[in-house]
Amino acid sequence: MSLPRDQEIACQQVLVDDSSVFSIQWSVFPATLAAPLTPETLLNRYLAYIRRCTATIIRPHCSASGIQFRLFTSRWSLISFLPPVEEQQAVVLRICGGMLVQPGQCERGELRFGVKELPDGIRVSLELSEYCPLLLGSPSPSPFRRLLYRLSQAAIHRLVTVRFLALLYRELAGPGARVRVVGVKVRDGQPV
Questions:
Q1: Does the model's pTM come out above 0.70?
Q2: Number of CB atoms found within 10 A of residue 131's CB
């Protein structure tokens, strides 16, 4: 089987008109490699990866009430989600609170894990939408707050999700597989 020279990971992160964040990263894997992937396995691998890549500083905690990204062994949740909901070719975690979410916007936003069959392979994606970060402060964030968010939380989110997809691809294709990130435009908004 011949693999492409560089596996592409598509990425976009923007602040949309209502000052919520939209972020998407995806890659189309060859069907022969991605056949065992499901949205549920993608979610489970991501949760294990978050724990590993943060040296257990962030610990996903799963319970009947949902999933929390907790700081160390404390009960402090950086971001909390309702229990996973299965949709067609995706598992969705709806945001319901946490220290990184604007207090008045805790019932907005979701993180979607998708595994979708396409004619040219299987699209593996992570999509964050309608998220209102605490760092932005309000629906009308100042230029300083937008810059602070872009240089901190947005940069970390992009790094974590892109690395996750790259590592997943290398696990399936072999450690020598090369990847590159390409910018895409899915939604209008101000880049972050």
A1: yes
A2: 22
